[in-house]
Specification:
The chain is α+β, with helices and mostly antiparallel strands. The chain is built from 10 helices and 9 strands.
């Protein structure tokens, strides 16, 4: 009996625990679900629900080109990746493109260590983004291949944005590569110079592309100068982080 229960745990045959919550960290029934949602006490993955507002799902976004939509998402992805990487070694970050209330705009991030995820949860619950308070929690998701809709990856999902599995927004590959490269360089600098590692891990991937790699090309981001993204918060496109009504 015990082996049978272990085999069906987290599957659709499990009549006690919600398989959707265990797979994707969210359930369309929410607290009204007839099955149990087991909230993890420890996890490498965090969830920030309903953060990204995809313009394509708004009337204003209907007139935007594919290039403008991609640029909008890349700015959001870079902004969030840099912020989340301040709390530890960020292995991967995913943003949902679903339109269901339980998945719309969800941001998932997986760290190398559980302690880093716990630190991020503690800090981000006191933060704001785009004039809205952030809610952050530990998520049971450990394998995003199981959480994502395979039919969507093949272009055959008939439910589209209303699917109960993750449909992801995809950032530009060069941006993802430069963000992970800059994170590696910053972590090495923190090891070589512990005093420097005590500050925020803010870096500019564009500096790495123009500088060609190591050396002085990787410079900390000046909080007073947001570069290409300086006016986004004031224009209301993506907003920006704030703590106690101040920008970071």
């Amino acid at each position: 009996m015990a082996s049978h229960l272990a085999n069906i745990f987290g599957t659709e045959q499990d009549r006690v625990n919600c398989s959707f919550y265990l797979k994707i960290g969210a359930c369309r029934h929410g607290d009204r679900c007839s099955r149990k949602h087991i909230h993890p006490q420890y996890s490498q993955t965090i969830l920030l629900p309903n953060v990204y507002n995809n313009p394509i799902h708004t009337p204003e976004g209907q007139n935007m080109s594919a290039e403008e939509l991609q640029a909008n998402f890349d700015r959001f992805y870079e902004d969030f990746f840099i912020e989340l990487a301040k709390y530890g070694h960020l292995l991967e970050m995913h943003v949902c493109d679903n339109v269901g209330d339980h998945l719309m705009g969800n941001v998932y991030a997986r760290y190398e260590w559980e302690a880093e995820a716990a630190k991020a949860v503690s800090a981000l619950n006191d933060r704001w983004y785009a004039m809205k308070p952030l809610h952050c929690e530990l998520s049971p998701v450990s394998d995003f291949r199981e959480a994502c809709c395979r039919q969507n990856e093949l272009g055959t999902c008939t439910r589209e944005g209303f699917c109960n599995f993750m449909h992801l927004c995809h950032p530009t590959k060069s941006l993802v590569s430069s963000l992970h490269a800059s994170q590696r360089v910053s972590r090495r600098k923190a090891v070589d110079d512990p005093a420097a590692g005590q500050g925020d891990m803010g870096w500019t991937p564009s500096a790495a592309r123009s500088g060609g790699g190591g050396g002085d090309a990787w410079t900390p981001r000046d909080r007073g100068d947001r570069g290409d993204r300086g006016d986004r918060g004031r224009n209301g496109d993506d907003g920006g982080y704030r703590r106690d009504e101040r920008r970071y």
